[in-house]
Structure formats: C-alpha cells, structure tokens
Amino acid sequence: MIIGVPKEIKNREHRVSITPEGVLALTATGHEVFVQTKAGLDSGFSDAAYLEAGATIIDTAKEAWACTLVVKVKEPQACEYQYLRPGLMLFTFLHLAADKQLAEELLRNEVCAIGYETVQLENGRLPLLAAMSQVAGRMAVQLGVRFLQRENGTDFPGKGRLAGGIASAPAARAVILGGGNVGCHAAEAMAGLGAQVIVLEADSLYMQHLQATVSDQISIQLFSADILAGLLPECDLLIGAALIPGKHAPDLLKREHLRLMQPGSVFVDVSIDQGGISETSRPTTYERPLYVEEGVLHCCLPNLPAAVPETSTQVLTRVTLPYIQLLADKGIERAIQDDPALARGVNVRDGKIVHQGVAASLLVDC
User: Fold this and answer.
1) Which of 102, 205, 211, 250 is found 20 to 30 A from 108 (Cα to Cα)?
2) pLDDT in tens, 100-138
3) What's the pTM value of the predicted model, to 2 decimals?
4) Cβ atoms of 81 and 301 closer than 8 Å
5) What would the CATH number be for the domain defined by 2-110+309-362?
6) Active centre residues (catalytic)
7) Which sequence spans correspond to the domains of the chain?
C-alpha cells in the first residue's frame, strides 16, 4: 500500500504522524511511504532520516494526500478539504463531535475516516488517545502554572501564586475535573510541584481505584455541582479533563461557577477538542493562548502536545504503528474484521457516520 504523510498545518502544530523508525517498519514489509518534505523537521526528524528509512520525499501536500492511506496527527483543516475523495482512508485525530463542518465534508466525499480518539479496546480503554492524553495532562500543568505568574508585559496577568508555596506562603490549589489519563497525569505533575490537588471524578467505583493508585497528596472526591462550587473560591488552577468517548465533552462548568473564582485564576480546558466542558470555552491558539471570562484566564488549546513534538511524535508512533501496519497489510475490510478495536475507531465510511457517539453528538442517524 502507498501511505502518505502530509506536513501538519494546524496553528503551531509541530508534530508529525510517524517517526523514521515507523517508516522503516512499513517499508521493510513492502509498503511505500511518501513523506512531505520537512514534515518531521519540528519533531527533530530530517528528510534524510526518512530517506534512509526507505521513504520517498515529496514536495507538496497534494502528493501526500493522493496516497491510498493518509496518516496525520490533527484533523484536516479547511484548506485540505480539497484533497478529500472517495476511496481515501484517513487515520488521524478527528474529534468530529465538535466539528460538524468536517464531518459533512468527510461524508460528502465518502472518505473512510478513522479517529485515533475512538479506537477502543474491549475493556473500554482508548489506547491511542491515552498516549496523547498523558502528554496533554502534563502540558496543562506546565502552561497553567506559567499563566498563574504575574508577568510584566502580558495581556492577562495571573494572580501571582507559586505552585508549591514556600515558607509561610501557601501552595497553589488545583482542582481537576475528570480522573482519566489527562486528569491523573495533570494531578501527579501538579502534586510533584508541591501544590494541593483535588480530582473530582463522577464514577464512584473508578474513584476508589484512583485513590489507591495516585500519590497520597492527591485527594479524590466524587463530583457534584455543589462540591465543585464549594472548591472554586479557593481554586487557583482549574483543569477540565472530562471525556465521553466520541461524544461532546460533558457540560460541567457554568458562568456562575467562574464568578466564584478569584480574579487571575486560571482555567485550562483540555477537553476543548471535544467541545469543552464550560459554556465559556472556545478554542485558542498558541499565538493567542488566553482570553478572560469573569476575571478567569482561559486557556483552551486543542493541540497541547504540539508544544513538545519530539516526545509526542515518538509516543504517538509507538501506539499507532500497529494499526497503520494492519491497515496497510490487509486493507480496511479485513483490518476491521480482524481487529474490533480498530473497527470501533471508524467514524465515517461510505458516506455515513458509523460511530454511535459521533452520530449522537451531531444529531444524525447512525
């Protein structure tokens, strides 16, 4: 099979969908891989490294998109819709529950679109999403702590709270909504800085598992609107990390909740890929990562792992490569017959939405 790797063009998206080592695994089994020139440069991978792995370096995105299977990191941008066509297999993060326009384009062009975020094992785990969620959780803390600083020259100065506190000054207080991969890694990273951390989790059984696995300085509490409201007046950093596979993120945060927080507090909504958890959430970019609502600094970057592309690309390739290999070796029909997890990842095929969660969020029949 011929596999295309376009250069990512989303705002400040520095990742690439596959490392040279991943390309070598594919070419060693007889597949051709066309990599757009400089696609891996920001992740630390040169064109020469891809050539050595057996790839063909091509000049344009059009050539990469002309391949049978296109492997990306982020969803197609509007200027890439021209490359969509019947018979194309697209394997990437899609997040269609929050992007009706893209869903309509995939349907109209009869693309077979498989979302990394919806590849799901029998036990409910999301192995491809989990890899980037772990990175995103730690990045949410890195950015959140930075935005808490009161820096001269910034448009939106934070409240000026040190994460770990010192001497008689108290540590920062973080509240994390959701105890999945994003939430757990954010909690551990924040606790590692010496902050006070509370994770609110809606699943009472899973909550018990969490408390047994996270650090002692992290408190796990059962989510309720009243408990959240009670925590917000003293919360310095709020992280949205709730997920419903394939569906729009749960609506957990209202404007009146934000009014309970102190001016200069920070809200990082990692769930923005799936529409966000707050009625005040809207996507931001690395050029303009912040805006303010009700005195609270909002950071809603839909591609947090892009800021650490070398790490992210290596981690992503490790988990996606077996599925890329399967698609290349067997084609879509046999691949989804042989691997139920991959079959669950198919969002759109033959002009229809086939993933129930996506269909429910977009209010269409599956």
Assistant:
1) 250
2) 999 999 999 999 999 999 999 999 999 999 999 999 999
3) 0.90
4) no
5) 3.40.50.720
6) 95, 273
7) 2-110+309-362, 129-307
